[in-house]
């Protein structure tokens, strides 16, 4: 709960989309979010374009993660007239046209799932929070018109006929990750994961080094299990960036110590690497600012 939570939830009530169903789910009524959700429903229900707003209590998950248990609890209550399932996390603040943009790619049968991604905005400017934002931005840079796309559970949508055809309700009961297992099933069926830049969502976070290491370890491990090609691509591209600049800097220092005749050439290589990485960082930041200007 808190100001961020209220803003995030309000953004889902304010979708410029006719007759959508807005369902929230918690594990237990003792969850502080439950009472906050009930309050916000009473305040915003009348002015929202949502046809139906529900707050479900799913109970504790037994054979799978709590998040997947909650999602399946809602899925089991979906009626036959529903065409698309859209998923979002409560720590995301979305634009009013988020849902419209998210479901649009699903009009093409080749797209099995449409996805946005998160953009971490540090609440505090401590090094751990800044490192989290930088790591997340590096992953976001991999998304686009590429085979390496992976769905992100905090902002994704899938046609319900595809969900059922792939048997995702059964896959999820044994899965570690809702989004990566969904991505793998979609790609295995010969369909694409469509990235929607307009569905990049702001996530305001602050963290500490222990939390960052635990979060990173969990994300990298799950990705290596479900998407090994993406994991290797991310690892090699990161190594190229890091080792390129530091390796070139080391060679330049060595060239200076032995007074190599081509010292200027050696010195220019790490400078080129640095300018390239700086340019990419500036481009990422400007792109995020444009997409998140409603923030």
UniProtKB/TrEMBL annotation:
Pathway: Sphingolipid metabolism; Lipid metabolism; sphingolipid metabolism
A GO cellular component annotation in the UniProt record: membrane
Localization per record: Membrane
Transmembrane parts of this sequence: 231-253
SUPFAM superfamilies linked: Nucleotide-diphospho-sugar transferases
Protein biosynthesis as UniProt keyword: no
Membrane topology: Multi-pass membrane protein
One Pfam family it belongs to: Glyco_transf_21
Chain coiled-coil ranges: none
Example of a GO biological process term: glucosylceramide biosynthetic process
Keywords: Glycosyltransferase, Membrane, Transferase, Transmembrane, Transmembrane helix
GO molecular function per UniProt: ceramide glucosyltransferase activity
Protein name per UniProt: Glycosyltransferase 2-like domain-containing protein
